[in-house]
């Protein structure tokens, strides 16, 4: 992971400086496809922070070979657009996500961002959609961690009932985990909150 992380940081810095071709070249030359995907995800998210670079960011994300990184790029780009006040564009990006687990992650990230912006009604809409979406989906650690983060944001905004609902959802999800280490770490995260 060390070498991959270093190349990711270098690629992101190159893309920030406008050297996108070099940044993508580093990604292309990685030994493993998932390392290339990880770098391209980070480059696409970084580009989404710049005005006028959204289409390029989306294009890079669409061409990522691994679903995990592709759909996490879409989720992070949609959050960046929310931060910029571009709600409609943000929701259009989430619609590109055709797998329930990854769509859940995107909706969670957006709900957290709405909570941070004190847009409680919008956050509630996404939370309700998320609850319906994840009802029969086998979701994992990523979603549990995001639900804990969302619960924290909700409780900070005085929305304790919704926060409690998210924690109950996490406990229900943790019961499905096969890995004891993941169970303990997730439950520890709840205890800290």
What's the layout of helices and strands?
Blueprint: H1 2-16, H2 20-28, H3 33-48, H4 54-62, H5 67-83, H6 87-95, H7 100-116, H8 120-134, H9 141-156, H10 160-174, H11 180-192
Descriptors:
mainly alpha, single chain, 193 residues, 0% strand, 78% helix
Q: What features would you describe in this structure?
A:
It is a single chain. The chain is mainly α and 193 residues long. 78% of the residues lie in helices and 0% in strands. The chain has helices spanning 2-16, 20-28, 33-48, 54-62, 67-83, 87-95, 100-116, 120-134, 141-156, 160-174, 180-192. α3 (33-48) packs antiparallel against α4 and α7 runs parallel beside α9 (141-156). The two termini are 29 Å apart. The mean pLDDT is 80.
Category by helix and strand content? mainly alpha
How many DSSP-defined strands?
A: 0
Identify low-pLDDT runs: none
Q: Which percent band covers the strand fraction?
A: under 5%
Major sheet summary line: none
- End-to-end span in angstroms? 29 Å
The level of helicity is over 70%
Quaternary structure of the protein: single chain
Taken from the alpha-carbon principal axes, the silhouette is globular
What is the number of helices? 11
Chain-averaged pLDDT: 80
Q: Give the topology string: H per helix, E per strand.
A: HHHHHHHHHHH
Q: If you compute it from the alpha carbons, what radius of gyration comes out, rounded to the nearest whole angstrom?
A: 17 Å
């Amino acid at each position: 992971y060390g070498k991959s992380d270093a190349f990711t940081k270098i690629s992101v810095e190159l893309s920030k400086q406008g050297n996108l071709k070099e940044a993508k070249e580093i990604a292309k030359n990685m030994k493993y496809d998932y390392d290339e995907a990880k770098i391209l995800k980070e480059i696409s998210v970084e580009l989404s922070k710049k005005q006028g670079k959204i289409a390029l960011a989306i294009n890079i994300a669409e061409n990522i070979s691994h679903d995990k990184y592709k759909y996490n790029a879409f989720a992070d780009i949609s959050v960046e657009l929310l931060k910029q006040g571009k709600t409609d564009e943000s929701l259009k990006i989430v619609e590109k996500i055709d797998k329930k687990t990854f769509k859940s992650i995107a909706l969670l990230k957006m709900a957290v961002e709405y909570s941070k912006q004190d847009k409680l009604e919008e956050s509630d809409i996404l939370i309700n959609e998320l609850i319906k979406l994840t009802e029969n989906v086998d979701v994992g650690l990523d979603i549990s961690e995001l639900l804990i983060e969302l619960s924290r944001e909700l409780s900070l905004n005085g929305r304790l009932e919704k926060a409690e609902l998210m924690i109950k959802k996490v406990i229900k999800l943790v019961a499905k985990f096969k890995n004891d280490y993941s169970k303990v770490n997730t439950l520890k995260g709840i205890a800290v909150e």
